[in-house]
C-alpha cells in the first residue's frame, strides 16, 4: 500500500469529527427557522384537511355516484372528479414529505382515501358502461333485415357476467346498480325484438305499433336499423308488443289458409271422359269425388276462419271465397243432374226402336242434343268476330270464360309477332278498372300507347281496340321520328329516342329522299353529288360500327345492329349507282328498290317498288331483327311485290336452308305487316287451312305456308279453290371481310368434298349462320382479337363437335391451311368446366384428360370428356335444337346428364322431359282433329310442349329430349319449331312458341332417315365411341375393388383384355390382321367389357385371393364374356389365343397326347 493512502486512512477520523461539529453548529443556528416552518406545515395540513372534507362532501352529493340512472352524465363527472382527486393526492404526498421532514406525525386524510377508493370502483363500473355503450352504438347501425339475435344475446350476457365479476363493494355502488338495471332491461327487450322479427308482421302491424307507442321511424328495409328499435325502449311496451305479435301470427295462419284454398283451386281440374254410344260422340264430366271433398273441406275451413276474431283484414276475401265455392257447388249439382238426364235419354233415343215409336220426341231430343254438344265448341262462334285465329279452342275458351283482362297475357305471343305482353295499369278515373297502356316486346322494348284502352267491355271489343291503338300509336311515333330525324343530335343518338322498327322506317324515308335529292342536284349541274353522298353513307356506317363496339345495353346493340344491316344494303346500292353512273330516279336500278315515302295526302307512309305501292302496316314487332339483304333477296322482294300488286301470291322454291321462309318474313317486316308462319303437314285438312285463311283475311296479315308440298293432294285441290276465291275478292275490291368470307366458303366446299359422307353433316346456310352468330358473340366479348382469329375459332368450335373420329384431323388440317400460323387453343369456361368435372366425379366416372397412344398398353385414351360436354354447351348457345348423334356406348346420355347436373350446380336448374317419339303413332304424338265433330284431342308431345313453354319467373332451363330414331314421318312437323320461327303449329290452328329458356335435343343413333331440311335446322354433336373407348368403364369397375385386388387386375387387364378385344372385334392378332372371329350377334367392345365386369363381380367373393387365383377367375370370366357370343369354330381360336397369352399348354388331340 502506498504511503500516501496510509496517510489518508489515518486522517479519516479527524475529518469525520470536524464535519460532525459543523453540522451540530448549523443545527443549533436553525432551531428557530425549523420551528417557524413546522408551524407553517401544520397550518397547511389543517387547510388541506378542510379542503379534503369539502371535496368529499361535494363528491358524495354531486359526484358520479349520485347521478341515478343518468350514467352518461356520471361518466363525464367521473373524469372530472378523478382529475381533482389526482391533484389532491399530489398535494397530500408533498405535505406528507414536509411532515416527515419536520418530524411531525403523518396525517392520513381518511376522507381523501375514501373518495379514491370509491373512484377506483366507479372507474371499473363506468369503463364497463362505456364498452356497453360502444357496442350498442355498433349494434344500432345493423340493418333490421340483417339482425342476428344470437349475437345480441351473447353480447349482453357477457356484459352481465363482467359486472358480476366485480368486487361486492363495487357492485353495491349506485351506478353499478343502475348499470345492472339497464343491462337487465336490454336483455328483457330481446324476446320482444325476436317477436317483432316474426315473418307474420305486416306493414299494418308496424303502423299500429308506432301509433300506440308514439314512436315513429322509417320502415324502409334499406335504411331501417336497430337504432329505431333501441330508441323505443321496448321493455316499457312488452304487453302491447305481445298482443300485436299474437294477432299477427293468428292473421298469418288465416292468410295461409286462404292461400292454400287459392292454390288448391288453381290446380284443380275436372276430368273429362269421352262418351260414345253407337255413332254418337260427346265429352262428359268424369268422377268428381275429390273435387266435392275439397269443396266441403274448404267450406269448413273458411267458416272457421270467419269465426275468428282476427278475421278483420281478410273478411272480404273469405266472404268472396265462400260465395264462389257455394256457387261452384250449385253449378256442379246442376251440371251432374243435366248430364245424368242426357245420358239416360241418350240411351233411350239413341236406339232405333224408340225413335220410330216416338218420332216427335226423338226429333226434339236431337235438337237439344246438338245444342248440348255445341257448348264444347262455343269458340267457333267467336272466331268469326275476333282475330283469335292462331290459338286453340281451349285457349280461346279460357280467355272468353275469364273476367280477368290479364288472362290474355300468356297468349299474346301467339296473336302478335314478337310481342310478349301488354302493360296493364289501374285507370286514373276508376281505380278498380284496368286499362292497357303499352305493348312489351319479347326483348322488353316497350311502346307506350298515346291513349289508354279500357278493359271494361267484352274481351273481343277491347282487344280489337288494342290492335287499332297499336297501329295508331306506331303511326304517330313514326311520323314524329321522321320529323325529328337527326335534329340537334347525331343520327346514332337520335335512334336511342325511338323504337327499333320506327328508326328503320324513318331512316329509310330519309334515305329515299336523300337519294332523290342527289338526282335533283345532278340535274342542276352538281356532278359529284352522288360520290359525296356515297362518302356520307360510308361515314354513317363507321359511326354505327364504333357505337356497336362500345359497351351498350342489349336492346340498344340490337337496334344498331339492325340499322347497320339496312345501312350496308343502302350503301351497296349507292356504290352501285356510282359505279354504273345511275343519275336519274326513273332508272330501273332505282325503281326496283324498296323506296319509302311519307305522302302528305293522305298523311301516310307508303312503300313503292316498280309498279307496286303499299301502305305501311304499322304492326309493332319489337326488336326481332332483319335479314342481311343480298342481290338474291332483292330479286325475291321485287318478284313478291310485283305479284302482290297484281293480287297474286308468291311461291319461293329451293333447297332446305336457303332462306325462303325468312326472306318472306323479312319483306313483311319491311312493310310493317304481321307474317304468320304455318308448318303444313299430312294432318292438315281443308277446314283447318280455311280457318287460317279466314283469320289472315280478317286480320290483314300475311301467311307463309312452310312445307306446303307435304299437304295431301286431295286437300290441295280444295285449298286451291279457297285461294282462288280470295284472289277474286281482292281483284273485285282493288374487302377484308370478303377475304374472310372467301375462306369460310372455301373451307365448307373442301369439307363437303374431302371429308367422309355422313348423314348428319351439313355445310349449308344454316350452319354458316350459326358460325357467324358465334363469331359475333366472340368479337363483342373480346374486341382486341383479330377478326381472322375470331372466325377461325368460330369455324373450329362450331364444326368440330359434329365430326366423326377419322374426320377430325382432316378438318383441323384444312383450317390450318386456310389460316396459316394461327394457333387458338380451346377456351375453358372455368366455372362450367369445374362443375362438369365435379358432376362426373360424383357419379363415379373416369375423366381422362388428353388423347394419347401407349404402345405398351395398346390403349387409346379418350379426348377430354369434359370438352365434349362443353361442345354441346357451346352448340346450344347458338341453336335451340341440337342432335346428339352416335352409336350405342359412346356416352351420349352421360354427356347430356353431365350438362344438366353442371348447369343445376351453377344455379340454373335444368328440367329434362324424355320422349320416345317412335313408341306411338304420330296422331297420338301431336294430337288429332276429328274431321266430323272438329273436336281436338291433345297428343303427348303437344301437351308437354305447351306445359314447358308456359311463362315462368324462375331462372331455369327446360329441355325436351327425343330418345329414338329421327325420320320424316314424325319430325317434319317440327320444322317450324327448329327454324327461327320457333313455332309448333298444330292442326287445330294452335301455335305454341318455343321460349328462350326451352330447347329440344335429339338423342339418336344416326340420321339415315332424316331429311336435309331437318338436319340443316339442328346443331350437331357427334359422340364417337372411339373417342371414349372401353378403358374408362373398366377403370371405373376396378376402383370399386380392394386396393390389392385392383393392382393385380390392372396388370391382368394389360396382359389379356386389349389383345382379346382386338382379336374378336378388329381381327388383329399381335398387331397383324387375321380372319375376324365370328359371333352369333354383333357386339361392341364396350358390351364385352360390361359383360366381363359383371362376370367378375358375380364370381368374386369377399375373401382374400392370391394373384394366381385372381388370374384364374379372370380367365374364366373372359371366356364367358369376351368369348360368349362366338360360334363353335371361333371359340377354338379364342381358346388357343387365351392359353397362349397365359403361357398354358394347348391340347390339340387328347388321344395323341395320352399315347405320347
UniProtKB/TrEMBL annotation:
<dbReference type="GO" id="GO:0030286">
    <property type="term" value="C:dynein complex"/>
</dbReference>
<dbReference type="GO" id="GO:0005524">
    <property type="term" value="F:ATP binding"/>
</dbReference>
<protein>
    <recommendedName>
        <fullName>Dynein heavy chain, cytoplasmic</fullName>
    </recommendedName>
</protein>
<keyword id="KW-0175">Coiled coil</keyword>
<dbReference type="GO" id="GO:0005930">
    <property type="term" value="C:axoneme"/>
</dbReference>
<dbReference type="GO" id="GO:0016887">
    <property type="term" value="F:ATP hydrolysis activity"/>
</dbReference>
<feature type="domain" description="Dynein heavy chain linker">
    <location>
        <begin position="114"/>
        <end position="375"/>
    </location>
</feature>
<keyword id="KW-0963">Cytoplasm</keyword>
<dbReference type="InterPro" id="IPR013602">
    <property type="entry name" value="Dynein_heavy_linker"/>
</dbReference>
<keyword id="KW-0547">Nucleotide-binding</keyword>
<keyword id="KW-0067">ATP-binding</keyword>
<dbReference type="GO" id="GO:0051959">
    <property type="term" value="F:dynein light intermediate chain binding"/>
</dbReference>
<dbReference type="GO" id="GO:0008569">
    <property type="term" value="F:minus-end-directed microtubule motor activity"/>
</dbReference>
<feature type="domain" description="Dynein heavy chain linker">
    <location>
        <begin position="388"/>
        <end position="481"/>
    </location>
</feature>
<feature type="domain" description="Dynein heavy chain AAA 5 extension">
    <location>
        <begin position="1075"/>
        <end position="1143"/>
    </location>
</feature>
<keyword id="KW-0966">Cell projection</keyword>
<keyword id="KW-0206">Cytoskeleton</keyword>
<keyword id="KW-0969">Cilium</keyword>
<dbReference type="Pfam" id="PF07728">
    <property type="entry name" value="AAA_5"/>
</dbReference>
<dbReference type="InterPro" id="IPR027417">
    <property type="entry name" value="P-loop_NTPase"/>
</dbReference>
<feature type="domain" description="Dynein heavy chain hydrolytic ATP-binding dynein motor region">
    <location>
        <begin position="616"/>
        <end position="738"/>
    </location>
</feature>
<dbReference type="InterPro" id="IPR042222">
    <property type="entry name" value="Dynein_2_N"/>
</dbReference>
<dbReference type="InterPro" id="IPR011704">
    <property type="entry name" value="ATPase_dyneun-rel_AAA"/>
</dbReference>
<dbReference type="Pfam" id="PF08393">
    <property type="entry name" value="DHC_N2"/>
</dbReference>
<dbReference type="GO" id="GO:0000235">
    <property type="term" value="C:astral microtubule"/>
</dbReference>
<dbReference type="GO" id="GO:0005938">
    <property type="term" value="C:cell cortex"/>
</dbReference>
<dbReference type="InterPro" id="IPR041466">
    <property type="entry name" value="Dynein_AAA5_ext"/>
</dbReference>
<dbReference type="GO" id="GO:1902850">
    <property type="term" value="P:microtubule cytoskeleton organization involved in mitosis"/>
</dbReference>
<keyword id="KW-0243">Dynein</keyword>
<dbReference type="Pfam" id="PF17852">
    <property type="entry name" value="Dynein_AAA_lid"/>
</dbReference>
<keyword id="KW-0677">Repeat</keyword>
<dbReference type="Pfam" id="PF12774">
    <property type="entry name" value="AAA_6"/>
</dbReference>
<feature type="domain" description="ATPase dynein-related AAA">
    <location>
        <begin position="883"/>
        <end position="1017"/>
    </location>
</feature>
<keyword id="KW-0505">Motor protein</keyword>
<dbReference type="GO" id="GO:0000070">
    <property type="term" value="P:mitotic sister chromatid segregation"/>
</dbReference>
<keyword id="KW-0493">Microtubule</keyword>
<dbReference type="GO" id="GO:0030473">
    <property type="term" value="P:nuclear migration along microtubule"/>
</dbReference>
<dbReference type="GO" id="GO:0045505">
    <property type="term" value="F:dynein intermediate chain binding"/>
</dbReference>
<dbReference type="InterPro" id="IPR035699">
    <property type="entry name" value="AAA_6"/>
</dbReference>
<dbReference type="InterPro" id="IPR026983">
    <property type="entry name" value="DHC"/>
</dbReference>
Amino acid at each position: 500500500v502506498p504511503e500516501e493512502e496510509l496517510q489518508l486512512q489515518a486522517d479519516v477520523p479527524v475529518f469525520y469529527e470536524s464535519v460532525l461539529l459543523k453540522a451540530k453548529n448549523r443545527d443549533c443556528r436553525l432551531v428557530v427557522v425549523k420551528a417557524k416552518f413546522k408551524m407553517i406545515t401544520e397550518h397547511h395540513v389543517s387547510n388541506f384537511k378542510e379542503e379534503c372534507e369539502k371535496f368529499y362532501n361535494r363528491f358524495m352529493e354531486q359526484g358520479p355516484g349520485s347521478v341515478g340512472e343518468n350514467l352518461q352524465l356520471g361518466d363525464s363527472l367521473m373524469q372530472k372528479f378523478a382529475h381533482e382527486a389526482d391533484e389532491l393526492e399530489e398535494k397530500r404526498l408533498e405535505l406528507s414529505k414536509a411532515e416527515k421532514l419536520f418530524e411531525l406525525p403523518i396525517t392520513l386524510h381518511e376522507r381523501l382515501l375514501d373518495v379514491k377508493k370509491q373512484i377506483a370502483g366507479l372507474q371499473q363500473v363506468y369503463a364497463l358502461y362505456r364498452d356497453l355503450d360502444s357496442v350498442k352504438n355498433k349494434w344500432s347501425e345493423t340493418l333490421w333485415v340483417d339482425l342476428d339475435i344470437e349475437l345480441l344475446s351473447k353480447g349482453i350476457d357477457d356484459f352481465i357476467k363482467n359486472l358480476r365479476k366485480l368486487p361486492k363493494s363495487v357492485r353495491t355502488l349506485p351506478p353499478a346498480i343502475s348499470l345492472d338495471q339497464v343491462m337487465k332491461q336490454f336483455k328483457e327487450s330481446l324476446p320482444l325484438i325476436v317477436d317483432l322479427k316474426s315473418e307474420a308482421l305486416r306493414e299494418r302491424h308496424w303502423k299500429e305499433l308506432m301509433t300506440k307507442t308514439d314512436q315513429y321511424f322509417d320502415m324502409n328495409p334499406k335504411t331501417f336499423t336497430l337504432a329505431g328499435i333501441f330508441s323505443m325502449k321496448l321493455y316499457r311496451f312488452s304487453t302491447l308488443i305481445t298482443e300485436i305479435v299474437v294477432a299477427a301470427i293468428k292473421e298469418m295462419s288465416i292468410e295461409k289458409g286462404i292461400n292454400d284454398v287459392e292454390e288448391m283451386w288453381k290446380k284443380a281440374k275436372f276430368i273429362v271422359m269421352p262418351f260414345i254410344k253407337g255413332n254418337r260422340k260427346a265429352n262428359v264430366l268424369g268422377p268428381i269425388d275429390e273435387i266435392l271433398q275439397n269443396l266441403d273441406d274448404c267450406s269448413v275451413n273458411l267458416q272457421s276462419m270467419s269465426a275468428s276474431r282476427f278475421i278483420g283484414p281478410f273478411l272480404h276475401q273469405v266472404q268472396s271465397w265462400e260465395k264462389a265455392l257455394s256457387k261452384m257447388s250449385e253449378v256442379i249439382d246442376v251440371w251432374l243432374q243435366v248430364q245424368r238426364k242426357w245420358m239416360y235419354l241418350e240411351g233411350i233415343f239413341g236406339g232405333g226402336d224408340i225413335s220410330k215409336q216416338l218420332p216427335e220426341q226423338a226429333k226434339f231430343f236431337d235438337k237439344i242434343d246438338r245444342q248440348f254438344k255445341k257448348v264444347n265448341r262455343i269458340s267457333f262462334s267467336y272466331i268469326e268476330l275476333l282475330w283469335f285465329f292462331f290459338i286453340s279452342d281451349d285457349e280461346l275458351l279460357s280467355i272468353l270464360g275469364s273476367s280477368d283482362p290479364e288472362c290474355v297475357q300468356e297468349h299474346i305471343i301467339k296473336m302478335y309477332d314478337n310481342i310478349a305482353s301488354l302493360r296493364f295499369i289501374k285507370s286514373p278515373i276508376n281505380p278498380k278498372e284496368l286499362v292497357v297502356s303499352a305493348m312489351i316486346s319479347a326483348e322488353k322494348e316497350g311502346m307506350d300507347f298515346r291513349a289508354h284502352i279500357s278493359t271494361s267491355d267484352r274481351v273481343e271489343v277491347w282487344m280489337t281496340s288494342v290492335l287499332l291503338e297499336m297501329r295508331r300509336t306506331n303511326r304517330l311515333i313514326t311520323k314524329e321520328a321522321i320529323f325529328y330525324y337527326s335534329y340537334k343530335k347525331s343520327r346514332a343518338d337520335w335512334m336511342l329516342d325511338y323504337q327499333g322498327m320506327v328508326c328503320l322506317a324513318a331512316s329509310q324515308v330519309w334515305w329515299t329522299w336523300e337519294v332523290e335529292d342527289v338526282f335533283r342536284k345532278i340535274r342542276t349541274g352538281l356532278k359529284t353529288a352522288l360520290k359525296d353522298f356515297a362518302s356520307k353513307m360510308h361515314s354513317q356506317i363507321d359511326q354505327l360500327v364504333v357505337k356497336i363496339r362500345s359497351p351498350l345495353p342489349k336492346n340498344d346493340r340490337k337496334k344498331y345492329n339492325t340499322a347497320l344491316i339496312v345501312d350496308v344494303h343502302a350503301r351497296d346500292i349507292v356504290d352501285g349507282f356510282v359505279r354504273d353512273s345511275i343519275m336519274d330516279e326513273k332508272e330501273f336500278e332505282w325503281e326496283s328498290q324498296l323506296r319509302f315515302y311519307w305522302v302528305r295526302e293522305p298523311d301516310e307512309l307508303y312503300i313503292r317498288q316498280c309498279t307496286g305501292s303499299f301502305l305501311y302496316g304499322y304492326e309493332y314487332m319489337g326488336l326481332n331483327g332483319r335479314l342481311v339483304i343480298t342481290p338474291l333477296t332483292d330479286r325475291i322482294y321485287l318478284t313478291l311485290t310485283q305479284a302482290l300488286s297484281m293480287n297474286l301470291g308468291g311461291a319461293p322454291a329451293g333447297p332446305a336452308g336457303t332462306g325462303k321462309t325468312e326472306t318472306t318474313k323479312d319483306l313483311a317486316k319491311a312493310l310493317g305487316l304481321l307474317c304468320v308462319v304455318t308448318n303444313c303437314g299430312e294432318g292438315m285438312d281443308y277446314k283447318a287451312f280455311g280457318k287460317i285463311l279466314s283469320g289472315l283475311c280478317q286480320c290483314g296479315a300475311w301467311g307463309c305456308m312452310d312445307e306446303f308440298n307435304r299437304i295431301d293432294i286431295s286437300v290441295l285441290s280444295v285449298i286451291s279453290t279457297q285461294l282462288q276465291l280470295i284472289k277474286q275478292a281482292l281483284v273485285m275490291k282493288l374487302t377484308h371481310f370478303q377475304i374472310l368470307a372467301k375462306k369460310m366458303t372455301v373451307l365448307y366446299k373442301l369439307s363437303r368434298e374431302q371429308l367422309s359422307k355422313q348423314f348428319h353433316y351439313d355445310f349449308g346456310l344454316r350452319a354458316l349462320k350459326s358460325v357467324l352468330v358465334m363469331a359475333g358473340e366472340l368479337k363483342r366479348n373480346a374486341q382486341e382479337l383479330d377478326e381472322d382469329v375470331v372466325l377461325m375459332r368460330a369455324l373450329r368450335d362450331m364444326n368440330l363437335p359434329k365430326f366423326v373420329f377419322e374426320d377430325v384431323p382432316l378438318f383441323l388440317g384444312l383450317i390450318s391451311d386456310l389460316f396459316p400460323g394461327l394457333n387458338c387453343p380451346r377456351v375453358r369456361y372455368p366455372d362450367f368446366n369445374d362443375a362438369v368435372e365435379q358432376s362426373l366425379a360424383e357419379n363415379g366416372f373416369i375423366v381422362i384428360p388428353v388423347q394419347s397412344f401407349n404402345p405398351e398398353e395398346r390403349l387409346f385414351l379418350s379426348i377430354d370428356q369434359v370438352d365434349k360436354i362443353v361442345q354441346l354447351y357451346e352448340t346450344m348457345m347458338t341453336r335451340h335444337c341440337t342432335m346428339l348423334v352416335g352409336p350405342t356406348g359412346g356416352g351420349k346420355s352421360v354427356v347430356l346428364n353431365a350438362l344438366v347436373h353442371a348447369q343445376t350446380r351453377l344455379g340454373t336448374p335444368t328440367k329434362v322431359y324424355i320422349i320416345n317419339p317412335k313408341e306411338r303413332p304420330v296422331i297420338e304424338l301431336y294430337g288429332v282433329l276429328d274431321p266430323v265433330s272438329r273436336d281436338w284431342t291433345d297428343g303427348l308431345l303437344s301437351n308437354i310442349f305447351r306445359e314447358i313453354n308456359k311463362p315462368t319467373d324462375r331462372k331455369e332451363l327446360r329441355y325436351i329430349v327425343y330418345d329414338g330414331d329421327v325420320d320424316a314421318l314424325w319430325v317434319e312437323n317440327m320444322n317450324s319449331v327448329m327454324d327461327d320461327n320457333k313455332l309448333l303449329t298444330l292442326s287445330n290452328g294452335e301455335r305454341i312458341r318455343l321460349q328462350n329458356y326451352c330447347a329440344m335435343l335429339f338423342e339418336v343413333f344416326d340420321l339415315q332417315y332424316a331429311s336435309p331440311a331437318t338436319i340443316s335446322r339442328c346443331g350437331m354433336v357427334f359422340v364417337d365411341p372411339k373417342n371414349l373407348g372401353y378403358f374408362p368403364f373398366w377403370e371405373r369397375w376396378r376402383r370399386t375393388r380392394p386396393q390389392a385386388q385392383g393392382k393385380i387386375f390392372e396388370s391382368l387387364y394389360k396382359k389379356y383384355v386389349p389383345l382379346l378385344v382386338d382379336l374378336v372385334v378388329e381381327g388383329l392378332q399381335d398387331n397383324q390382321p387375321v380372319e375376324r372371329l365370328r359371333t352369333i350377334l354383333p357386339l361392341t367392345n364396350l358390351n364385352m367389357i360390361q359383360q366381363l365386369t359383371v362376370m367378375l363381380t358375380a364370381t368374386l367373393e369377399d375373401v382374400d385371393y392370391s394373384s394366381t387365383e385372381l388370374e384364374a377367375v379372370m380367365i374364366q370370366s373372359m371366356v364367358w364374356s369376351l368369348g360368349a357370343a362366338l360360334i363353335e369354330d371361333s371359340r377354338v381360336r379364342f381358346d388357343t389365343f387365351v392359353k397362349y397369352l397365359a403361357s398354358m399348354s394347348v391340347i390339340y388331340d387328347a388321344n395323341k397326347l395320352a399315347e405320347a
